[in-house]
Structures are given as C-alpha cells and as structure tokens.
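seq/struct pair 1
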Amino acid sequence: MSIFGQKTPDKEGAVKKLPSMTQWLQFFKVLNKKEIIAFAGLAIVFFASLIFLIHSFYVNHTNIVPADSGKLREGILGQPQFINPLYAYSSDVDRDLIELVFSGLMKYDSNANIVPDLIKDYRVADNGKSIEFSLKENAKWHDGEPLTIEDVIFTVNLVQDSDYLSPLRANWQGVELEKTSEYKGIFRLKQPYSGFLENLANLKIMPKHIWQGATVQAMTSNTELNLLAPIGSGPYKVSKTSQRSDKTVKSITLIANKNYYDSAPHIQKLELIFFNKEEDLINSLKKGAIDSASIENSGSIDIAQFKNSEARILKTTNYFSVFLNNNKDPFKNKNIRTALTMGTDKTELLQTALGGKGTVIDSPIIPAFYGFGEPQNTISYNIDEANKLLEQNGFELKDGLRQKVIEKTSAFKFKATLQSGSSGNDVKKLQECLAQDPNIYPSGEITGTFGADTKQAVILFQEKYKDEILTPSGLTKGNGRVGAGTIEVLNKVCFAVPDEAVYLSFKIKTGNHPALIAAANDLKAQWEKLGVRAEVVVLDNMEMKRVIRERDFDALLFGEKLGAIPDPLPYWHSSQVIDPGLNLSLYQNTDLDSLLEKQRSYYDFTNPDRTKTLEAIQNTLVADAPAIYLYAADEVYLTSKKLKGFDLEKIIDSSKRFTNITNWYLGEKRTWK
C-alpha cells in the first residue's frame, strides 16, 4: 500500500507505491454527490473538534492575568503646586499626586483599614508609648538609592521643625524617633494615642539625600523637585510636565515604577490632565478625551449621560453640619437648637445638595461608616413638635414670623423716699422727670437739691395723677413728699421702656460651592415653614477662612472629616473653641471633654472600651444638639468601563481613590499555569 508516493509492503509482502498528489486529486471525481457531502461534513467535524481540543487545552492550562500595558488619562480640577509631602495636605490636587509618587510607613486598604506600607512589621510596647518597627529592605527611591531609617528620621524632623510650617506639625509634637539599625527604629510617645498609626499613614517619606540641607526658601521654591521631577518611592514617577502658554500646568505624565517594592503597577502610564473649570472637565469626560475623574458637584449631574464611564460610588467620612454658635442667642438655648433639628428634613436636603449620593446622619461620629452602634434618642424630623417647642420657649408665630416679646426696664428707677432737704443724683433724676412737663415744673432747674420749687412741682405732679397717688391713700391734695405711691407713678411716667419684639432670625454662612449653596437655600426654605427667618450668605475661600478663624457667624454650613481611626476631639473639645481649634459650635461640656480625652488614651484603637466611649460621645452630642448633623457625602469617581481591578468601597479622602492603583489594569493576557 502506498501513501503519498511512499513504498509500503502489502499483506503479501510486495512493495507498492502510495497514491501521488495527482492521484489524490482524482479522489473526489470517483465520489458521487452524497458521498462528497458526507465527506465534507466529516472533515468539518474533524477540524472543529481539533480546534476545540486545542482551545480547551490552552484554556485549561493557562490563567487570565492583567497585562502590563496601557495609559489612563485622569482629569483633575485645579492646579498642582507642591508634589512635596511636607506641604501637600493643604491642597486636594497635590494630595492626589503625593499619593501616586510617594509612600508612607502605613497606608489604607480597600475598606479604609490601616495596614503596613513601607513598614515590614511593627510591635507596640510600653502600653502604647513605644512602637518598634522595621522597614522593607527592597524599597528604593526613584533614582535608585535605597530608602532607609535615615530618610524616616529626616522627614519627621522636617515636619516637627516650626520653621518649615508643615500642616502636619501638630500631629507630631512630642514624638521621638530612635534609630536602632539601618532599617529599624522605635517611635516613642509621651502618652498612648489611639490615632498614631493614622499619623504614620498620612506621613509620606521624603528622600534625605535629595533634600538634606535645604533651607525653608529652597524647600518651597525648588520647582524642579516640587513639580517637574520630584523623587519619591511610590508606584509611579513623574516623566513629563506640560505647560500652557500662560505657564499653568496642562498635564503631568507618570510612568510605572518597575522597581516598586510592592507589586508594580499594571497600567504603564498615567496622564493627569488639569482643568480650571469643572464644566470643561465634564465635557472632556463625555467626549472621551479623558478616561476618569472625580466629580465634585455630582448632585447636579446625571451620571447616566456618561455612556462610556462607570460610576464608582465610594463611602467617605466627609460629613456636613450646620454649626450653631452656642455663645450667641438664640443658640445658647438647647431647646431652640433642638427645634431647628426637628424642623430639618435631612433626606430632602441630601437629594437637593448631592442628588441623594450620600448618607443621612444623626451623629458626627458616622456610625454606619465605622460599624458603631446607632446613637440613642435621635432627634427625628417632626415639624409639629418643632413648632410646639418654639412656642414653649416663648417664640410665638405672628404674621408668619417667630417672635418673642422681651420686657424692657430702665437702667434707673426711684427707690428711696425724697423730701425737702434731700440731695444727690436721685433728686437730679426727679427734677429731670418733673421738667418734662413745663406746667408742673416751669423753671426746669436741675440742681440736685430738693428745695421749695421742687416740692411745689411734686405737689402738682401728685395732683395730676391723683387717682393713682392720692385717692388710694384717702388724700385730696399733694404733700410734696415722694413716697411709695408717688415713686411707682414716677417710674412709670418718666422711665417706662417699651417692650421689644425679638425675631427668630439669623444668617447661615457657607462656602461658594454649588452643593453647599443648594443645601443652605433648602434649609432656609424648610425653616421658613417654622416661621424662622434665615438669610444665606455665600463666602469665598479667603472670607470663609476669616469667618472660621474669628468665629464670626450665627450658623455655619460647613464640612468636616474624620480619619480611619475616628478622633472627634479636635471638633468638640472645649480647648478647641479658639482657632486653630475646630470646635465650630463653640460648644463646651466638661463631661464630654473627659470622654474625648479618654478615647484617645487607648493605644489599641479597636479596643471595645474605646468603642463604647465613642458611642457615649455621640450620645452626648446628639442629646445636646450643638450642631445639626446633616449628611455624609459619597465620592463619585467616574472611570472608563475598560478599567478593571478597582475594588474600593470606602476612602478617607479623595486622593485615596488611588489606594489600590497597582491592581488596576486596562488589558488582559494568558499565562501558562
């Protein structure tokens, strides 16, 4: 038998040739139509099966993994100034860049928990006053130099130096750092502090070999190191900075740090494109000119219009409240604060301000974010009860406005008996009073001496008001002596002060941001239903800083935020009522102060007793209502639908949307198992 011209033995042993190619081509000529169809069908089945088997083998013996490729274009509202950990925390834009270019000793994970970053391991000793730690020895700066304990000491010293005016300085007072080896050290605290690990997460380390010896002026004026080519140790490094004709920064291109000590990023390039107007950023996202952006004014934007984008809704600790000045009327009165809280529909307010993208809160400790128990005795929306409470506190509704009548009295009143021979200030006041009627005291002389003219004037006064003075005593003529009956009438006639109507009216001051303005106007409309008159005053950034610094407000609609380890002390302790403290309600409560100090003293911030202390703090703040707690805002981050690996749920601030950026990817590939 012969195959393709090759000689093969037949069963008798004779050698025969295989059919040649020409002979094979004659094969279909000897088949009829049905046989050809059958053969073709079998051939198709054969090759399909072969392809299927090959594909199955490939799929079963390979894994899909992220491909190290691609570029992500991120739109950012604002301008970068300092890609420098010493100063970045006063700017949202700078914090974004710091998060990508630099590293901290600790960091946040996808659920806003604090976990090691540059630190390899650590141990808490001395009841929380010592933290021994070691660094990862494979960490390097972008220029290839090793990152050691010397860099950590250098950074801490810079932050603590008052000459450099770092915003982080307050968190590092009294902290000492001792070097025990090239990659090990010990932090020593004067007392245990539950939030210290968060300080480690917020402190990004600076390279000593780059900045050593830099003066304050050099630190702030070095554009090359602060903006164009900063040297960090993070997952990305600056490759290129582009400027517009007006010298503003158009974009900064970052490339993946392939020597990153942790898993290197999959996305090879990040192009950060800066916009001066949110409208321009939004339009670029719609057109596909950028791939991702954090939307600041998300309440007024229909997310569905971004057809090529996916909305990532991230829970945050950014909460907004109306801080009521507890040192001013009417907010000195707890019942008035409570009534206003009852008259506030927070659900409506959240919809108005943020399009519902957030969470209504009754406590500034945000229990839903941290998993604490809900506060006791929350003040629910109840407009009828609010009206009743205002009535009980003297504010009656007249002509649509709440007002309270205040009885006014003169600073002077006659009290002592006066008669001929008396002298002094009381006699002067008597003469001034009598002189108001020339028919009674024609001379009108103010001598301070009770003489004959004064006596005659008193007699005439007594007879003019005989029904009130003489008749009750059975007299028909005045005697010229100023006794009890005469004193009472003199005080009514000469020193009567009309009562004053005090309206329940005040100003709500807030920042120049669409969501805040919308919320303030909604509050005004809601409180008008109670008869409360509120005027909205919108402030620019500079004026807002002054108002907060001087506590120059009746009511302030403003936002605050907590960290991953909540520490409400800066916002509510009595010591923080004066700037730079952040107790904006000027609320003082010694029992609360003790609780606020106690929650800080647990070095293990997960201690159940600390949780109970925080819950007691929130119960006090809910009961006393020094402010009206409104809502916690969500972060709305729009990204290309092609982006994968994004698994964040909670963030502490907007820059932490990049927390797990090394897991993000735009493409996939298969690798053999």
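seq/struct pair 2
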Amino acid sequence: MQNLRRSCLCASIAIGLIPCFAAPAFAQSDASQARDLDQLVVTATRTARTQDETLAAVTVIDRARIERLQPASLVTLLRGEAGISIGNNGGAGKLSSVFLRGTEADHVLVLVDGVRMGSVSAGLTAFQDIPVEQIERIEIVRGPFSSLYGSEAIGGVIQIFTRRPQGAFAPHTSLSAGSFGTLRASAGVGGKAGDGWYSFIAAHEHTDGIDVLRDNPANPFDDFALDADRDGYRNDSITAQAGYRFSDAWDADAKLLRGEGRNEYDGSFADVSKTQQQAVSARVGFKPSETLSFTLRAGQSRDLADDYSGDVRASRFQTRRSQGSLQSDIGLGERGGLLTLGFDWLRDTVDSSTAFIVDQRISRGAFGQWQGDFGAHALQLAARRDEDDQFGGKTTGSALWGWDVTNMLRVTASYGTAYKAPSFNDLYFPGYGNPSLTPETSRSIEVGLRGTHGVARWGVQAFETRIDDLIAYDATLVDATHPFGQPNNIEQARIRGVEVTGGAVIANWDVQTALTWLDPRNRSSGFNEDNFLPRRARQTARIDVDRRFGAFSVGGSVFAAGERFDNPGNSVRMGGYALVDLRAGWAFHSDWSLQAAVANAGDRDYETAAFYRQPGRAYTLTLRYAPKR
C-alpha cells in the first residue's frame, strides 16, 4: 500500500508539473483568456486587484468551475486545493475542520460577503452548513493576514461570495438526486434594472447519509454512543441581496445568507443537532474622485446549535458577531501607489444554556496599507493595531515584494506576523476555561515563483510558520473550580511546506493541479515534542481534467492524501488514500443541461477523522435550467 500511495503521488506530481515545462506548445483559447483577465481578487489587499497583480498566494474558484466540478458540498469543493487539508466526521453535514497551511482549524479567517463568520464559543466555522449552491465565488488567500483583518488569519483567509446576477432578469433552477437518498433542489431569480440589481435564491438539501461512527476498541465508553443506523442531514437556505447606484459617486447594497440544518449523529447525551448559519451585511460606497473612495460596512453573523436527545433539548449555543468597518482608499499618483486606511469594530456575544461568566467582548482595530510599483518591482506593506476588552492590545504587520523578471515570470517574497484570540470556551467555559489566556501568535516567511505562458499558469511557494503560545489542555493547572486542569498557552509549532499549482489547456483539455507538501511539527517540550500535528495530511495532490465536445462535456478529478495522525501523541494513524471522481454533462438545449457525477468511483474506504467513516461510491444526476444571457 505504501508503494501504491507513492506511485499515486508521483503521478500527480508529474501531471501537475506539465504546465511548467510544456507551456509553449499550448494553444490559447479566447474563452480562457477572458476568464483569466476577469479574475479580480479583493481579499488579499481589501482592494480590487487582478490575480496577476496580487503578491500573495491566491486560489480563485468561480461559479463556472463549481458547476463543472459538481461538488457534493463546500467541504468537497475545498478538498485538495493548495495548502488545504480537511478533517470530516462522516460526510454531509458532519463537523468539518479546514486546516490551511498546516495551522489549526481555528487559524483561518472565514468571511461571507465581507462578514466575519465562526462560532464565538468553539472558535470554528461550520463549513458543512454553508450550501455550495448559494456560492458565486471563493477566494483563498494563503499566509498571515492579521495585518489587514486582525484575529484568526494565521494560516490565511477564505472569503465566500454569494451569487449575484450578471445581466438582465433571469430565473434559474436545478434539481439533483443521488445515492444515500440524496435530494438537492434550488431556484432563484435575479437581474439588473437600470441602476439597480437584485437576487433571491432558495435551496434545499436532504440526505439519509451513512452510519458514521465505527467502534473504537481502545475506548469502551463509545459503546454508549454507537447506533447502527444512518445519520442523515438536511439543510434549507436562502440568499437575498440588492444594490443600487445613486450617482457616479454613491452606491449601496445589502446581502443576506441564511441556512438552517438538521444533523443526525451518534452520541451518548445528544443525537440530533439543529443548526443555523446566517450572515447579513450592508455597504455604502462613496467615490468623490478617481483617486479617493470611502466604504462603510456593517454586518452580523450568527452561529446557532441546539442539541437534542430525542425530543428533549440537551444544550443550546447561540453566538453572534456584530461588526462594522470604515475604509478609505487614497490614490497617490502614478508613482505614489495606493494608500488604504481603515478601522474595524467587532462585538462577540454568547447566549447559551451553559452560563458563561463573561458573555461578550469588543475589539477595535486600526490598519494601514500601502501598495506601490517601481518598474519591475511591487511592494505591499501593512500594519495593524488591535485593542481587545479581554487581552489588551496586539500589533501585527506584513511586507510582500514581487519582481517581474520577465513579463512571464515573477519572484515573490513575504514576511508577516499574525495572532488568534482565545475562544469563549477556552476563556470562560464553566469548570474548564482560563481567563488568563493570551492570544496565540505567529511569524511566517515565504518565497515564491510563478509563471504565465499563454493559457498556462504555474506557481511554486515555499513557506515556514512558527506559532507560539498555542492553547492546549494543561493538567497541572488544578484548583477548586478546575479539578481536572485548564487550557494554557504552553505549546509551540513549526510548519514548513511547499505548494505547487498549475493550470493549462492541453489539446483542448482544461487541466488544473494543486500539490502540497507539509511538515507540521509540535515544537513543545514534553512527550509530544517533534510529533506531527494531528489530522494534517503531509502530502496532498489534486488534478482536475475537463473537456467539451460541442454540447457534451466530460471530466474527472483525482485526489490523493498521505497518512496523518489523529492525536497529538501520533499513536492513532490514518492511512493515505486516493479518490477518483468522474463527471459528464449534456447541454441538450440552449437553456437546459443534464449532468451526471460519480464520487469516489473506486468505492475507497478511508477516514479523515479516526473512527468516522466516509461515504463510498455515490452517483448524482442533476438537471439545470439557466437561460443564456
């Protein structure tokens, strides 16, 4: 099996490097060229930049790619992208952790239409409850970005943009049915009218799921939780948004995403969770001149989880993140660059059946950024100061540099610091929390090389991140209210990695690749020193290949992951695996298409969290209606 895994990885590497060496032989298509030119990125700088101009390592997933790949969920869509490793507890709707560049699952900042997401109590974002059918675009920015966003952005930032109309009035709908009793349906309408635009989409998903939890022979207590039945999931969601341009200087918009889920699982005290994810935002823009603009934003996210045992509610956690920001972008002339100044305000609150001694905190952050070009060189410098009610102040900064060696080759380098504020569970959970905790901090360095040859693109990034004051359970902190210990800032980590990305059109086949090597080490003194950090695959590879034949399209994806460990002691090992997904489509009418997909075509048994099964082979058939613009 070890040789097989190595063979799969080597094959992935070879295919992934094809765009680097064979690029001059590719023929450029007009559609691909237009796609590349249209890819603007805002997350890496909080300003609009083309992907070529952006100095950070960025991956963009647009709506066309989402519909082509036919992913079962947002977690499936993100799996195997450069720098990303996934831990999932049993398929659709189950707890999912996203590790970015080997950092902790709560070290990635997640935004939905600019609104900061995540549970204030647990510190995690419920990726499993964000419906992929509501997503227009995703920007994944890898590296430390606390200098622009404050807490959480140690590994990077993932921003999700909900679907927005691209033209005049147009309805759209889709209906999918598949294995494990899966049914998905969505319908929406949107359009532009004069100086305004609007959109409304409703979606539903239901699956009977699989029997998720298997027996752990080393844990006799899990016998109380085992239940030999399928653990289903349901999600109902809506997005609603509208915007209007009042004049050449003024415009405004408002957006809402709301998803309600019901998740079944095996548990000894509760076996059903009712969840809610919501993000609402409003924005006003004022641009009095070509060199000056102001943006005012306000928003709120909500994470709700009610756990039930039968019909009896066992616990309730509802957290809110109310937020606002004011940003000014100032053009300093052709050679003076772009100066960005801003202020962020955030209030986190907890409303729970568990009584927290503190149920809210407020943080304020002021930041500045400068971007400039000097011939073949480009610079991005940023600094930020955050003040928090709980732990006081924290200053972070970053510097990114790029050098265009030729018009097809760029060298980049960067350095940045970042931090993560402790969660409410770590600070205040009764009998466990430690109010004396300080933020986890990091420093990162990165060098990169990227090239463009016609429609072929490739990039290589090497990085190292060192994290101090990681929060972990400390059995020595025992007192009258904490008889079993408390969390403490006692751990350190060092993460090294290399990412390779590539994309090209080869003989009319669209090929996209992402390869990641990680060395995520625990650098804390003690029993776990130099062990691998848990649940991070040290090697991942993803290859997507697609082609159109007139009205027909075919494609496939290969995803491979190396072994990982499920615990800090590295005694629970999960083996590597490779998955193959297949897909096809038929546009039998200008407005109608039929798609078919086979996920895990090899019916591979594997786990990304120990003792939690993953679905086997699954078939899906989708009918889509979307009038051509």
